[in-house]
C-alpha cells in the first residue's frame, strides 16, 4: 500500500536533472529565453538543438502533462479503487462475521435438528411400536367384537326363545293361579273339616261327661325286678290311648283312655296334658284332678312328686302364677290354698298349726257353693311360698303314723286352690276352685285282714271311691240325681264336680304281674268313670264318624301338600327362568358396554395416531426448511 502511495506521488511531481520538467522544457524552448511557467524561473534558449530539445521538452511536457493528468486520473482511480478495496474489505469482514454467526447458528440448528431428528426417530419408533400394538389390539378387538357378535346373536336367539316361551310361562302362571285357588279352596275345606272335627270332639267330650281319664303306668321297681316279677302291660297302642293287660294264659284285655303314659313318660309330659284343664281355673271354671289306683302305683308321685321331680300340684301353682303375672294388666288374681285329708270320713286340716278338737264340717255357703268353716286358707303370693305350704301339708299327713305310706294310702289327700279373679276391664269377679286329690289306695282288702280298724278304713275308702265313681257316672249319664252326699270326698267336691266343671283322673297302675288283678280292677273302675258304659254302639258311631273325618282330613292334607309341592316347583322354575333371562340381559349389557369402551379406545388411538402423523410431517417440513437455509448459507460462504 505504501509503495503504491509513493508511486502515485512521483507521478504527481515528475523531475529531470533535479529540475522540474516544466522548467526544463522552458530552458530548452525555441525562443531565446523564457520563464518557466511552473516554477517561474527565467530560462534561456540558445541553439536548434536546444530548440529541438525545447520542442521535445514541450512535447514531453505535454506528454508529461497528459501523463500527469492521466496519472492524476489513475491515482484518483487508484484512490477510488483503494477506498473500494477498503470498503470491500470491510464488507468482507462483515460477511465473515455474518458467516461465522451463520455457521454458529447452523451448528445450533444442526444440534436442534439432531435432537429433533432423534425425537422424531423416537416418535416414529414409538409410533411404529404403538402402531404394532394398536394393530394387535385392533385385531384382538375385532376378534372380541366378532365373538361378542356371535354371543349377541345367540342371546337374541335365546331372547327369541324366551319370548316364545312367554305364552308357556303365562300358561304356567295360569296353572299356578289355578293351583293356588285350588289350594285356597282346600285350605278352606281343611279349616271347615277342622272346625267340624273340633265340634265332634267337643260332642265326644261332652258325651264322656266332660271327664278325661289318663292312665299312667309306673316302671317296675327294683324290688319287683329282683323278685322276678314280669310286666303285664302292653303299650303298643299307647299313642292311640290303648293299653293292654296280658295276664298269664288269659287273653289280652284292652282298655281305652284319653291318654296313656308309659313308664318312660316324665312328669313334665304328664303335666303338659293336664295344663289346659288346670289353668281353666283362672277363667272361672271349677276343676277336679284325681289320682286313682292301688297303693304303690305312683299317685303321690304324680300329684306331689319329689323336690327334683315335681308333680302336678307344684307345676299347677307354678303355671297359675305365671299366667296371673302375664295377665296382671287386665285381671288381678288372689290365690289361696287349703290342704285337707279325709280319713275315715273325717276331714283334717293339714295346714292347721294346732290340732283342733272341733270336727270340721261341710257347709253350703251359697248357691252351689260349699265351704268348710274354720279351715286354713293360706294365701300364696308367689311360687316360692308354695313348696313350703305343700310340704307342711304333706308332713302333717304323716303325724300320728309310724309308716307314712301306710297312713297316706288310707286317706284322701286334697289340695284345694281357690282363685278369686277381678277383671280390671269389665269389673267381673269370679271365684273358682281347683281340687287336686291324691286318693286313698284302691286295693281291696284281703279277707284275712278284714277286721278292726283296717276293716273300717277299708270300708270307708271303698265307700268313698264307689261314691266318687257313682257321682261321675251319674254326671256322665246326665242323671237328675247326683249322689254327692254319699261320702265326705264327693260332698267336699260337690261344687267342683259336674255342671260347668271339668275333671281329670289319672288312673295309676303297676306293670307287675303280681298286681295284675288290682290293675284290672282299677282299669275297670276307670272305664266306668270314662263312660264306656254309655254303650258301645254310640261309641262306635262316634269313632266311625271321627275316623271318617280323620281320613278326610288326612286326604285333604295330603292333597294340599302335593299341590303346595307342585306350586313350589313351578314357582322355582319361574324364578330360575327369570334369573336366567336377567343374567343373559346383564351379560349382553356388559358386552355392549365393553364394545363401546373398546370403540372409544380405538377412536382415541386413531386420533392420537393422526396427531402424531401431523407432528411428524410438521417436523419433516421444519427439517427441510433448516436444511435449505443451511445449504443457502453454505453457498453464500463459498
Ligand atoms: P302311691 O302314692 O300310689 O302309693 P307312690 O307315689 O308313693 O305311690 O309311688 C310308689 C313308688 O313308686 C315311689 O317310690 C315312687 O317314687 C315310685 N314311682 C311311682 N311312679 C313312678 C314313675 N312314674 N316313675 C318312677 N318312679 C315312680
Ligand atoms: Mg301315696
From TrEMBL:
ATP binds at residues 293-300. Residues 599-638 are annotated as: Disordered. The keyword ATP-binding applies. Residues 607-620 have a biased composition (Polar residues). PROSITE patterns: KINESIN_MOTOR_1 (PS00411), KINESIN_MOTOR_2 (PS50067). Residues 210-532 form the Kinesin motor domain. One of its GO terms (biological process) is microtubule-based movement. It comes from the Eukaryota. The keyword Aminoacyl-tRNA synthetase does not apply. Keywords: ATP-binding, Coiled coil, Microtubule, Motor protein, Nucleotide-binding. GO terms for cellular component: microtubule. One of its GO terms (molecular function) is microtubule binding. Residues 50-158 form a coiled coil. Belongs to the TRAFAC class myosin-kinesin ATPase superfamily. Kinesin family. KIN-14 subfamily. PANTHER family: KINESIN-LIKE PROTEIN KIN-14R, KINESIN-LIKE PROTEIN KLP-3. This is Kinesin-like protein. It comes from Aegilops tauschii subsp. strangulata (Goatgrass).
Amino acid at each position: 500500500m505504501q509503495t503504491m502511495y509513493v508511486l502515485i506521488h512521483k507521478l504527481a511531481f515528475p523531475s529531470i536533472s533535479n529540475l522540474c520538467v516544466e522548467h526544463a522544457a522552458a530552458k530548452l524552448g525555441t525562443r531565446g529565453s523564457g520563464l518557466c511557467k511552473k516554477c517561474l524561473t527565467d530560462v534561456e534558449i540558445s541553439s536548434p538543438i536546444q530548440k529541438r530539445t525545447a520542442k521535445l521538452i514541450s512535447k514531453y511536457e505535454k506528454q508529461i502533462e497528459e501523463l500527469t493528468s492521466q496519472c492524476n486520473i489513475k491515482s484518483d482511480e487508484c484512490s477510488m479503487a483503494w477506498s473500494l478495496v477498503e470498503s470491500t474489505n470491510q464488507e468482507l469482514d462483515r460477511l465473515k462475521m455474518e458467516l461465522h454467526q451463520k455457521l454458529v447458528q447452523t451448528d445450533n440448528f444442526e444440534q436442534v435438528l439432531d435432537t429433533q431428528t432423534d425425537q422424531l426417530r423416537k416418535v416414529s419408533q414409538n409410533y411404529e411400536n404403538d402402531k404394532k400394538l394398536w394393530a394387535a389390539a385392533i385385531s384382538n378387538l375385532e376378534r372380541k367384537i366378532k365373538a361378542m357378535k356371535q354371543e349377541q346373536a345367540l342371546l337374541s336367539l335365546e331372547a327369541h326363545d324366551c319370548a316364545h316361551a312367554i305364552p308357556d310361562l303365562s300358561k304356567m302362571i295360569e296353572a299356578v293361579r289355578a293351583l293356588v285357588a285350588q289350594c285356597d279352596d282346600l285350605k278352606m275345606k281343611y279349616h271347615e273339616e277342622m272346625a267340624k272335627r273340633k265340634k265332634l270332639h267337643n260332642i265326644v267330650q261332652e258325651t264322656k261327661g266332660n271327664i278325661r281319664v289318663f292312665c299312667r303306668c309306673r316302671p317296675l321297681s327294683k324290688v319287683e325286678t329282683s323278685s322276678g316279677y314280669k310286666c303285664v302291660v302292653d303299650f303298643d297302642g299307647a299313642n292311640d290311648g290303648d293299653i293292654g293287660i296280658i295276664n298269664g294264659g288269659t287273653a289280652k284285655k284292652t282298655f281305652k283312655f284319653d291318654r296313656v303314659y308309659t313308664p318312660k313318660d316324665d312328669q313334665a309330659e304328664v303335666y303338659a296334658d293336664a295344663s289346659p284343664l288346670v289353668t281353666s281355673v283362672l277363667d272361672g271354671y271349677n276343676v277336679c284332678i284325681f289320682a286313682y289306683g292301688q297303693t304303690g302305683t305312683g299317685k303321690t308321685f304324680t300329684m306331689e312328686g319329689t323336690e327334683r321331680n315335681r308333680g302336678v300340684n307344684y307345676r299347677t301353682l307354678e303355671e297359675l302364677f305365671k299366667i296371673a303375672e302375664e295377665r296382671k294388666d287386665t285381671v288381678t288374681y288372689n290365690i289361696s290354698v287349703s290342704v285337707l285329708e279325709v280319713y275315715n270320713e273325717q276331714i283334717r286340716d293339714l295346714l292347721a298349726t294346732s290340732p283342733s278338737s272341733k270336727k270340721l264340717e261341710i257347709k253350703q255357703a251359697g248357691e252351689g257353693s260349699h265351704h268348710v268353716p274354720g279351715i286354713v286358707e293360706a294365701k300364696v303370693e308367689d311360687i316360692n311360698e308354695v313348696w313350703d305350704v305343700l310340704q307342711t301339708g304333706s308332713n302333717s299327713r304323716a303325724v300320728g303314723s309310724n309308716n307314712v305310706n301306710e297312713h297316706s294310702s288310707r286317706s284322701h289327700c286334697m289340695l284345694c286352690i281357690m282363685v278369686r279373679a277381678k277383671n280390671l276391664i269389665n269389673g267381673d269377679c269370679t271365684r273358682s276352685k281347683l281340687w287336686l286329690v291324691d286318693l286313698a289306695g284302691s286295693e281291696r282288702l284281703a279277707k284275712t285282714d278284714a277286721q278292726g280298724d283296717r276293716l273300717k278304713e277299708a270300708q270307708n275308702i271303698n265307700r268313698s271311691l264307689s261314691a266318687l265313681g257313682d257321682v261321675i257316672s251319674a254326671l256322665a249319664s246326665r242323671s237328675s240325681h247326683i249322689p254327692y252326699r254319699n261320702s265326705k270326698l264327693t260332698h267336699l267336691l260337690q261344687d267342683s264336680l259336674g255342671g260347668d266343671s271339668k275333671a281329670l283322673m289319672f288312673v295309676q297302675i303297676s306293670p307287675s304281674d303280681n298286681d295284675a288283678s288290682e290293675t284290672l280292677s282299677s282299669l275297670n273302675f276307670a272305664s266306668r268313670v270314662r263312660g264306656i258304659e254309655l254303650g258301645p254302639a254310640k261309641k262306635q258311631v262316634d269313632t266311625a264318624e271321627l275316623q271318617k273325618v280323620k281320613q278326610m282330613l288326612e286326604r285333604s292334607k295330603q292333597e294340599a301338600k302335593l299341590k303346595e309341592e307342585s306350586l313350589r316347583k313351578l314357582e322355582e322354575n319361574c324364578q330360575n327362568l327369570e334369573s336366567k333371562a336377567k343374567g343373559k340381559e346383564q351379560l349382553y349389557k356388559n358386552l355392549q358396554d365393553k364394545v363401546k369402551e373398546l370403540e372409544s379406545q380405538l377412536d382415541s388411538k386413531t386420533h392420537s395416531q393422526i396427531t402424531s402423523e401431523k407432528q411428524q410431517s410438521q417436523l419433516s417440513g421444519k427439517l427441510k426448511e433448516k436444511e435449505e437455509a443451511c445449504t443457502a448459507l453454505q453457498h453464500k460462504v463459498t
